[in-house]
Amino acid sequence: MTYPVMRELPPEQRPRERMLKEGAANLSDIDLLAIMLRTGTARASAMELAAELLGRFRDLRALAQATIEELSELKGVGPAKAVQVKAALELGKRLAALPAEERPVIRCPEDVCALVMEDLRDRDREYFQALLLNTKNQVLARETISIGTLNSSMVHPRELFKIAIRRSAASVILVHNHPSGTPRQAEDISLTKRLVEAGEIIGIDVLDHIVIGDNRFTSLKSKGLI
């Protein structure tokens, strides 16, 4: 198979540009390897060199085990490119060897408060955040969706679920603080129902909405309000 010269590809089809737009997970092994090589030669494009490397060493595991000298034997690679490839693959090996990260598990509203209370209770503005969970209710991330004023925070479903989709969340728990101390239960319920409905369409469950006060909290789910 013949691979095109990188500069002859339309910008939106080049591996580097595709990675910026689509993310690394959507690129092939050859695309990623071509990005590591950066440039080709008069004989072969970076993608052709990447394909030749993978062809010679069969797969990524064998490629990672190859020495710099073995990588350099391929015409057009040389020591400099071999070092780049070897360094990137070594980083991947070290990442794979790291111990599994302990992720907090959310079983009840108190678990949410243990994560967010100390940070949110004294804020002078309203922070609307989301805990993004996997299928085991482990916390993948805690994201701030919007920062409002003393007594208001505008949240659009698009902003919440764009982040949830990007992080491959199975469900979310909404969290925000009331720095003014003034309850706005009707507004909170209305917003939550809107987000729940949007989540149902997308396929990401909104499990609860926790409202944080000064060392106290309210779970809309526990109160049967959502």
TrEMBL record:
Keywords: Hydrolase, Metal-binding, Metalloprotease, Protease, Zinc
InterPro entries, A to Z: MPN, RadC_JAB, RuvA_2-like, UPF0758, UPF0758_CS, UPF0758_N
Domain annotation MPN: ranges: 105-226
rRNA processing is among the record's keywords: no
MF terms (GO), sorted A to Z: metal ion binding; metallopeptidase activity
SUPFAM superfamilies per record: RuvA domain 2-like
Top-level lineage group: Bacteria
Pfam families: RadC (PF04002), UPF0758_N (PF20582)
Record-stated family: Belongs to the UPF0758 family.
Protein name according to UniProt: MPN domain-containing protein
Organism: Desulforamulus profundi
